Amino acid sequence: MELNRVPITDTFAEAFPMSASRLIVTAATADWARIAAAAATGYAASVIGCDAEAGVERELTPHDTPDGRPGVSMLFFAFSRDALQKALVNRVAQCVLTCATTAAFNGLAGDAGKSIRVGGQLRYFGDGWQISKQLHGVRYWRIPTMDGEFLCEDSFGTTKGVAGGNLIFLGDTQSNTLAAAERAVAVIRRRSNVILPFPGGVVRSGSKVGSKYKALRASTNHAYCPTLRGVVESELPEGVNAVYEIVIDGLTLADVEAAMWAGMAAAVEGPGLKRITAGNYGGKLGPHHIHLRKLWEGR
Amino acid sequence: MGFKLTLRSPSPIPLEVDGIVPERLANLSALEVAKQPVRHGNRIEPLGEHFVVSAAGIGDIQFAGDTGNVHAIGRGMTSGLIYVENNAGRHAGAQMSGGQLIVDNGCGDWLGAEMRGGRIEVRGTAGDCVGAAYRGSRRGMIGGSILLLGNAGHELGLMMRRGLIVVEGNTGEFAGASMIAGTLVVKGHFGRRAGAGMKRGTLLALGGVEELSPGFRFCCDYLPAYLGLLTKSLNLPAVKRVKCYRGDALTGGQGELFLANGGP
Prior knowledge:
The structure holds 2 protein chains of 2 kinds.
Chain A: E1 2-3, E2 6-7, E3 12-26, H1 30-40, E4 53-60, E5 71-78, H2 81-96, E6 103-106, E7 116-117, H3 119-122, E8 131-135, E9 138-145, E10 148-153, E11 155-156, E12 159-171, H4 174-188, E13 194-195, E14 207-209, E15 218-220, E16 242-250, H5 253-267, E17 273-277, E18 288-291, H6 292-297
Parallel strand pairs in A: 6-10
Antiparallel strand pairs in A: 1-2, 3-5, 3-6, 3-12, 3-18, 4-5, 7-11, 8-9, 9-10, 12-16, 12-17, 13-16, 14-15
Helix pairs in contact in A: 1-2, 4-5
Chain B: E1 3-7, E2 15-16, H1 22-25, H2 30-34, E3 37-40, E4 43-46, E5 51-55, E6 61-64, E7 70-71, E8 81-84, E9 100-103, E10 119-122, E11 142-148, E12 162-167, E13 183-186, E14 202-205, E15 217-222, H3 225-233, E16 242-247, E17 255-260
Parallel strand pairs in B: 1-6, 2-7, 6-8, 8-9, 9-10, 10-11, 11-12, 12-13, 13-14, 14-17
Antiparallel strand pairs in B: 1-5, 2-3, 3-4, 15-16, 16-17
């Protein structure tokens, strides 16, 4: 199987369900909204070591936001609704509430009866001066701050999202391989309902489950490290000298599949890419097996 | 199936149509609707003596004719749509908890008094005590929304606890008096002593206040994030800055009065 003369390994990405939520942050300017978003989605690359996986979904114009100011939409994923609520409350409290001029809104209708409380938890920061407002059946909290007030929606919708969609790019040089990954990231970032939680959307430290050290749950994926090709059972063909991975989390399986296909199609449009494959754990980790062949055949 | 109730002739004696609401008429025939009791002065009479009942019409119930002395239209309704093509009398939409009431002209006092939910739209002026608490009650409106395209009388939102009232015109005196919570938006100006005795809640005056209550204190000049949300969701003109006053100090001082485009 080849795409633009780049071999595609007949394998699958193994994805798994995670609770997901969408946070919309607005601010007086687009810059301040971006600053809040960058802070709120920081240290959220992988649930292996973070409380959540998060990323910026897209920037919003004043026309698209609830309060008519520029904003940023973000997606958050965690293993359970409780974990998601804890992560969101902490992140909104420390990174959005503290950021000048911001307001926080729920961006997901979500599944019935499965909402989490964010503003409803943060309101206590108001120390009794917080004000509750209901508008069109939605409750908001207004918390006095030194620059005016912080407005936050009481509850956020959640849904069962899909995390762990991935593509692995094998290339001849570091620069060519990174360029392929960047092309994939660029097209995926134009899509709604998906995020790329790692820095720049790209992972250079793909991991395997377990380690020779008992305390570690994950360790470097030695089979994909070019510097170890001569001393381990390597997965790298001849001529491959760099590998990058992208990880995709989405609100639905279809969103993740569509993003993976878009990423593959974009990545092969440049020189030096030797192969595209995907990461899985033998089918034992997640119920969603996204076969690269089926993505191709479905198009 | 909806019903059109056309008033046969206006009467100087008040006619109360308490209970003539969509959920009660939903499974009735026109003949059965005509037999429903209404109060005419101090007598209970069948609705058909005062209204011509016909099928169809706008919404679930349409009131037609000179209904300015027909009171309690939509009182206690929980669902559906009532459309009044002329004026409505007193207590229209009072204590309703759901559905929608549209009055294509003005209405009398106590519009939406002690309302719990739903939506009222009046395309003319309203009398006193819109969304207010009845005398002796502890709470006025506790939910829903009222949109008034004309002026409102005195004591708008008296003791309201929750909900939203938007007035395109001006209000009389003591709007938001003893308010417990909720939001009043007035595109014109508030009459004297708006917010007197209010504990919490928000008054937004886009056109000023005739005279502030002495229990209000100026706090700052700013743009609350909430106003962006409010004005956008109500299709109101965007507000750049407001003068924020807090009061009434006599009752805790946690209410707020926002004056857009200048102070009183």
